[in-house]
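Q: Here's a chain of 228 amino acids. Please give me its 3D structure as tokens.
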Amino acid sequence: MRILLLFLMGLTVQVSISQTDLPQDYLSSDFHKGRRDALRTSMPKNSVAIFFAAATRNRSNDVEYIYHQDPNFHYLTGYNEPHAILLIFSDEQSNGESAYNELIFVQKRNELYERWMGRRLGVEGVQSNLGFNNVYNGEDFVDFPIDFLSFDKILFTDFKNDVRNSGREKPNLYTLIEQFKTMVNYSAGPTEVPVDGQFVEVKTNIDVESLQNLMGGLREIKSKDELK
């Protein structure tokens, strides 16, 4: 009986932290959209900024810590689930069918996993609750027609190699990051290499320094909505 009670308590905790059960007096989707627009105006021309959701953290065996979203990711989206990517473009893009200036890739709805981990917003939920027009499942990221090499700047925060490739469900954050690294020709090596006795800067459009400063400039001034 005691084991059953503990199991039910654990299940209750998992369900209670799902995003669809959170209070409704949080910052609005208009606030988050306004922050994305503000960032876009401060970005260099012909650039794209990429944000990854925070990683899940394992506590022991199959028990994870209560999930806490990356502050910048939440600030720009209001999305509180893992295994997601946000892309913000300085200029309007087109895939031949429609125009867009931002994309978000999120966890796919999965009834089995949601029984244990809490309900997910999914594509439709993110569209209706968070105000995004261009929402896709994470599995669509690798085949989405984005030519990262055509941008003058690819802005993101450098990786710390602390994301585990865990869990049966794919893509997870680890696989999404690996896909991104391949798409942008990412290298964690030196930015300068020796050539004929001199160090020459490696030419790349990857910028892992500027985004932190841009976000700091946005977040250091609080709006009335944030203070409330």
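Q: Can you summarize the key feature?
A: The CA atoms of residues 46 and 56 lie 32 Å apart.
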